[in-house]
Design goal:
The structure is a single chain. The chain is mostly helical. Among the domains are: 82 residues, Tetratricopeptide repeat domain (Serine Threonine Protein Phosphatase 5, Tetratricopeptide repeat), CATH 1.25.40.10; 53 residues. 77% of the residues lie in helices and 0% in strands. Helix 5 runs parallel beside helix 7, helix 7 packs antiparallel against helix 8 and helix 13 packs antiparallel against helix 14.
Length: 281
């Protein structure tokens, strides 16, 4: 008579175990979702604020554990670019774009890494493989640089102009465009572009230096009215001095070198050596 009760208890126990097993599965799924969120946050942190070499080590380890995860390979490639290892980054990007998950954005990033690695031909090929309907600031910025490298000036001007119109922070593109104009010998146009770039980023010393070079190329040997520290003022005067000497205006150059030495808040060794060399010569 006890067998039915025992059977019922056994069935009830089985049901409870099954129910517990179901709850365990639900918990596992929920925890997995949390882990994915946490991992995503960590990936973002490593890509933005983590030390470049640490980020490379993190994503390389993650790729070793999950070699089929394209998102992790993207993270590795971006980290390698941040760590100034573009050739390695290009290798990883090549793996990404040659999968069914590769996107046009990935191809642009691949081209960027190739340019950084000084592989202009492959970068040009990669950009050419992207449909013309894919229009982004980054794509046009790179197209302009490639056109520059080929001395296709009309194309580069068109690409630069388009890129500038597609971003609210065009300082870097304007600086590149200005430098392109300067290398072509159009110093006046370069000067205008450098001035415009500084309206968006008045702290960029590279742009300030390029502006002074453009002015020096036109024999404008006074400093432009821009934001600068005392040390920057001395270094910009030094740049003007070298530009003057290059133009054959040696007396002006010597005066500017002395001014740079007097202006610099510390001992300006490079300017001192240059002035001594001119005096000796």
């Amino acid at each position: 008579m006890r067998h039915p009760v025992l059977t019922a208890l056994c069935l009830a126990g089985t049901t409870m175990l099954s129910a517990c097993g179901g709850r365990d599965a639900d918990v596992d799924r929920a925890l997995k979702g949390v882990n994915i969120i946490d991992e995503s946050n960590l990936n973002d942190i490593m890509l933005t604020v983590g030390a470049p070499d640490e980020a490379v080590a993190y994503f390389r380890g993650a790729v070793d554990k999950a070699p089929d995860r394209i998102d992790l390979k993207r993270g590795l490639a971006k980290s390698l670019v941040r760590a100034q290892r573009p050739a390695e980054a290009a290798t990883v990007w090549s793996q990404v774009v040659n999968t069914h998950e590769g996107t046009n954005e990935d191809r642009v990033a691949f081209a960027d890494a190739l340019i950084r690695a000084n592989d202009w031909s492959r970068a040009e090929q990669e950009l050419a493989s992207i449909p013309p309907t894919y229009e982004t600031f980054q794509r046009y910025r790179l197209e302009a640089m490639v056109a520059d490298s080929r001395k296709h000036w009309k194309k580069s001007d068109s690409f630069y102009e388009t890129a500038v119109g597609m971003t609210t922070q065009p300082a870097g593109v304007l600086n590149n465009w200005g430098f392109s104009k300067l290398t072509r010998g159009d110093a006046a146009a370069a000067e205008r572009l450098f001035y415009e770039a500084l309206t968006y980023d008045p702290t960029s010393f590279t742009t300030k230096n390029n502006l002074v070079l453009a002015r020096g190329a036109q024999r404008k040997y006074d400093l432009p009215v821009i934001q600068m520290t005392q040390k920057e003022r001395a270094e910009l005067i030094y740049t003007l001095a070298l530009a003057a000497v290059k133009k054959g205006d040696v007396t002006v150059g010597k005066g500017l070198l002395q001014s740079a030495i007097d202006t610099h808040p510390q001992y300006f060794e490079a300017a001192v050596r240059s002035l001594e060399a001119l005096d000796a010569g």
